[in-house]
Specification:
Alpha-Beta Plaits, 4 strands, 31% strand, globular, HMA_dom_sf, Cation transporter, HMA_dom, Heavy-metal-associated_CS, metal-binding
């Protein structure tokens, strides 16, 4: 499972936006968002660069955790 530090998430809408952005690239990806810690964990067939790009395109800052 890959883990990323994501800043700018503050609510359920943010969680949905990040999850949908990742699952648009890999429908089977399992996405876990820890809003309080600002962490996103992803299990699936995407590489780290693809996941980070999807999160950035959704409007959030992201870095490997």
């Amino acid at each position: 499972m890959q883990q990323f530090k994501v800043s700018g998430m503050s609510c359920g809408h943010c969680v949905r936006s990040v999850t949908q952005a990742i699952q648009a690239l890999d429908q089977a990806a399992r996405v876990e968002v820890d809003l309080a810690a600002g962490l996103v964990r992803v299990e699936g067939g995407l590489d780290a660069a693809q996941i980070q790009l999807a999160i950035r395109e959704a409007g959030y800052e992201v870095a490997p955790a």
